Amino acid sequence: MGVIKSAMADALLTSMWIFTMPFLRVFTLQISAFLGVQALPLAAFFITTIVVSLMMFIFSLIGNALGGASFNPTASLAFHAAGLSKDSSLLSMAVRFPAQAAGGVIGVKAIMGFLPRELKETMKGPSLKVDPQTGFLAEGVLTFGLCLALLVILIRGPKNPLVKLLLMASTTVGCVGTGAKYTGPSLNPANAFGWAYVNDWHNSWELYYVYWLGPLTGATLAAWVFKFLLSPSPESTKEKKS
């Protein structure tokens, strides 16, 4: 698959992912209210994990159908830096990252045009609630933890795909909940850029420092830790195949 086609697929998948994200919150609130557990944090966490698991499953199918498309630059970078994406290169990511950012803008614009006014007022995307240095660390540390966990789960985790999916979803929900009081959070530069563009602060240095440099640094460090400390050795891989 050529770089341009990959970038177009990334843009499409990213716009679809960001368009559906607000519905995650709506579905979670509706299900929690229906079950009468909205005041129970653990129950809300479990419900959110189930919904996120379903979304991840659907989007993994769509991404595979699009030739391995990605909706998050940090995931693309983490797999490249860990040596797990043989077809990627720094040049291809230099093309795909802007495409993912453009997809983020399209997704946010689409959802803002779709939602009724009362819901639009509650949809503002990631926002910096601390100073930029703390925000940078929050996005970096949380992305580091998320990417490292995803790499371990996918490569060295359980063989059961359903268990893998639930572990990835619970890790994602946990990281998002932890970062809520710091940066929103985003943990996805394309998502942050889409909301920043719509809210007219995409030219701010804080956006690129906190929401781009922070997550991409965290993703790279997570990939290096996994590659040099946790990645299965070639010998063990050969033994499993034999």
TrEMBL record:
This is Uncharacterized protein. InterPro entries: Aquaporin-like, MIP, SIP1-1/2-like. The chain crosses the membrane at residues 6-27, 39-62, 136-155, 209-230. It holds the Pfam family MIP. Its main location: membrane. It is a multi-pass membrane protein. Keywords: Membrane, Repeat, Transmembrane, Transmembrane helix, Transport. The keyword Lipoprotein does not apply. It is found in: Membrane. It comes from Hibiscus sabdariffa (roselle). The keyword Transmembrane helix applies. Belongs to the MIP/aquaporin (TC 1.A.8) family. SIP (TC 1.A.8.10) subfamily.
